[in-house]
Design goal:
heterodimer, A: 111 residues, mainly beta, five-stranded antiparallel β-sheet, B: seven-stranded mixed β-sheet, four-stranded antiparallel β-sheet, 11 strands
Chain lengths: 111, 112
């Protein structure tokens, strides 16, 4: 079992719709959870962090964390073509001194 | 506000050649990391340095060595490049992992 698992996609949503991205992790000791956005040929960019159970909202983005189910999700409301990218889930591991990444979910927002 | 600077951006090596990838950060971060990214494999940790003077192996350290030259700089060396090391290499830094990483722009390495 991989430490951090994501559906590779592609996930296609129409412009203006809600995109839902999911991630599961195996290390019950993980304390920090992140979503990175990566455009093709570019480096990952941090867009959301979450540390406690529940929801955290930032603009059009909402991160959700359920530690009991070992599940993290990212909702993108009013999806725009500029949101088309690969979204990487990252989880703190190894006692919290490094991040383990999922393989990423490719999101395509269609006009 | 350069953040994390990686050099070179692109490199082509012949099998058996050696090279060093350079990484420098100007954010006074304690920790620095080297990852490689391959299609379908995601980002995999090669080596990291939790603080100046320390280095530790990550998930895929074979074929690589690192040097934490000072607090700002963390280099990755390929002693004898192999085609399996063709990849995109990212350096990252953080003050505390709790706050996440800042990534450099990457080095695209091809070994022929």
């Amino acid at each position: 079992q991989k430490e951090v698992e994501q559906n590779s996609g592609p996930l296609s949503v129409p412009e203006g719709a809600i995109a839902s991205l999911n991630c599961t992790y195996s290390d019950r000791g993980s304390q920090s959870f992140f979503w990175y956005r990566q455009y093709s040929g570019k480096s990952p960019e941090l867009i959301m962090s979450i540390y406690s159970n529940g929801d955290k909202e930032d603009g059009r983005f909402t991160a959700q964390l359920n530690k009991a189910s070992q599940y993290v999700s990212l909702l993108i409301r009013d999806s725009q073509p500029s949101d088309s990218a690969t979204y990487l889930c990252a989880v703190s591991t190894g006692g919290g001194n490094k991040l383990t990444f999922g393989t990423g979910t490719q999101l395509k927002v269609e006009l | 506000n350069a953040g994390v600077t990686q050099t070179p951006k692109f490199q082509v090596l012949k099998t058996g050649q050696s090279m060093t990838l350079q990484c420098a950060q100007d954010m006074n971060h304690n920790s620095m990391y080297w990852y490689r990214q391959d299609p379908g494999m995601g980002l995999r940790l090669i080596y990291y340095s939790a603080s100046e003077g320390t280095t530790d192996k990550g998930e895929v350290p074979n074929g690589y060595n690192v040097s934490r030259l000072n607090k700002r700089e963390f280099s990755l060396r390929l002693e004898s490049a192999a085609p399996s090391q063709t990849s995109v290499y990212f350096c990252a830094s953080s003050d505390l992992v709790f706050y996440g990483y800042t990534f450099g722009s990457g080095t695209r390495l091809t070994v022929v």
